[in-house]
Amino acid sequence: MSYQEKNITVSLVSYLLIVSYYLVNLFQMLKEGELVSSKLFGLSAIVILATIIVNIIASILTNIVLTIVEAIKDQKYDEPRFIADERDRLIGLKGMRSSYITFSVGVLVSVLAFAFGQPPLVMVSLIIFFAIAAEIIGDISQIYLYRRGF
Amino acid sequence: MEKRQVRNNIRKLRFHHDEMTQEQLAVKVGVTRQTIIAIESAKYAPSLDLAFRIALAFGVPLGEVFSYDPEDDPNQTINKIS
């Protein structure tokens, strides 16, 4: 597994944890009949902040840990280790395209739900869910491309 | 899966260059070993820039490393039919 694959896997796991936290809390609110705007926006703010912070921290930690492990393995301490070449960039772009398509479909579904009489809170919940789902799909498609060879 | 029309002799050229490893070639041309593996197995067609760098690494013209088989090209087949 290459450095990029490891990095994407860590990102995928962090997104899965965040989306699980979001869904568990959302269904708990629904079950208890407490789906009110103040609570939902609070949850959304936590999820959005967690998405940004957890991803940055996970990326930095992965980089540090992998650099240390590789340096110990190779016994070379002054070489640049992780380069992103043209294939990595292309796979990244393809992953981003999958993310955009997923998010576009998600926004369409959310707007349609609103148009067919669902309350605005459902629309907001769906948009946030699809935003994270888009990142997950993007990461999965990148891992798939790396595993397949391209 | 779509089969690439760009074929290559990288494996053979590596063998004739002191059995150069994929890792050594990757370092020489500035890409990852995974990219060399993908190019060798014709899963990924490199950019023109990378193709030239690979040819330079072996000290041979581009045509000796990569070749293009028009027989496999679906566009060519369509042209022939029409």
Q: How would you describe what is shown here?
A:
The complex is a heterodimer of chains A (150) and B (82). Chain A has helices at residues 3-31, 37-74, 86-115, 120-148. With 150 residues, chain A is mainly alpha-helical. Chain A has one domain (3-148). In chain A, helix 1 packs antiparallel against helix 2, helix 1 packs antiparallel against helix 4 (120-148) and helix 2 (37-74) runs parallel beside helix 4. The radius of gyration of chain A is 19 Å and the shape is elongated. Chain B is mainly alpha-helical and 82 residues long. Chain B has one domain: lambda repressor-like DNA-binding domains (434 Repressor (Amino-terminal Domain)), CATH 1.10.260.40. In chain B, 56% of the residues lie in helices and 7% in strands. Chain B is built from 6 helices and 2 strands. Chain B has a two-stranded antiparallel ribbon. Chain B is globular, with a radius of gyration of 14 Å. The two termini of chain B are 26 Å apart. The A-B interface holds A 2, 83, 85-88, 146, 148-150 and B 1, 30-32, 34-35, 37-38, 41, 43-44, 46-47, 50.
List keywords for this structure.
heterodimer, A: mainly alpha, 4 helices, B: 82 residues, mainly alpha, 434 Repressor (Amino-terminal Domain), two-stranded antiparallel sheet, 6 helices, 56% helix, 7% strand
Query: What does the oligomeric state look like here?
Result: heterodimer
Helix/strand/pairing class of chain B, anyone? mainly alpha
Task: Give the ordered list of helices and strands of chain A.
Answer: HHHH
CATH architecture of chain B: Orthogonal Bundle
Q: How is the biggest beta sheet of chain B arranged? A: 2 strands, antiparallel
State mean pLDDT of chain B (0 to 100 scale). 85
Q: Give the helix tally of chain A.
A: 4
The CATH superfamily of chain B is identified as lambda repressor-like DNA-binding domains
The domain count of chain B comes to: 1
* Radius of gyration of chain B, taken over Cα atoms and rounded to an integer in Å: 14 Å
Low-confidence stretches of chain A: none
Average pLDDT confidence of chain A is 88
Which percent range describes the beta-strand content of chain B? 5-15%
Number of helices of chain B: 6
The CATH topology of chain B comes to 434 Repressor (Amino-terminal Domain)
Helix amount of chain A, in percent?
over 70%
Overall 3D shape of chain B: globular
